[in-house]
Amino acid sequence: PKSFFFTRHGESMFNVQGKIGGDANLSPQGHTFATKLPELLAANLGPETRLTVWTSTLKRTMQTAAYLAWPQLQWKQLDELDSGFCDQLTYEEIEEKFPADFSERDQDKFNYRYHGGESYRDLVQRLEPVIMELERHHEPNHAILIVGHQAVLRAIYAYFLNYSLEELPYVKIPLHAVVKLTPKAYGCMEERYTVDV
Ligand code: F6P
């Protein structure tokens, strides 16, 4: 595949409150990130003259992509890990209400499935069509930007960087940073651009 870029959505109100899941709006800082994203991409696109933006169907990714003047595609498969009955709680609340689940997840984060939700293993399966599409993408001068979520981008990143399934749920994907991956015959070239908000 050719190069592609990815970034998490800008900081959301749930990020500020420490709540997981949900469908929150961007925070003021997250919005600032969204306004700075077009310039950052224009400066770093290199030889690519076309860009297609992939978002999830959640508001925070679409709001982050709102100022990008390139064609956009929404993928349901890019939605964040479904945290089921823990959706919209903080980690402290989860530990307090469901201590057994909390420690079970801690012991095997890749396989732990939230009740009524998903595990990282489920997520990896759901992302198969997205990864196939990235693998198939060979058009010259055409880059893809994925505006995604923490768990989703961990899975995509781990796939291209050959991380183990045990390491995958712990990969660090910071907010307000754009990563460019250029797959090579062996491994991947990686560039990172951070944005001050
Ligand atoms: O906190 C942001 C978030 O994207 C949540 O919506 C999601 O549940 C979580 O990160 C995934 O990270 P972890 O698997 O480390 O809890």
UniProtKB/TrEMBL annotation:
- Report the protein name in the record: fructose-2,6-bisphosphate 2-phosphatase
Summarize where substrate binds, as residue positions: R8, H9, G10, E11, S12, M13, F14, N15, R60
Please name the catalytic residues of this protein: H9, E96
Q: Which family does it belong to?
A: In the C-terminal section; belongs to the phosphoglycerate mutase family.
Species in which this protein is naturally found: Geranomyces variabilis
Q: Which residues of the full protein are shown?
A: 244 to 440 of 459
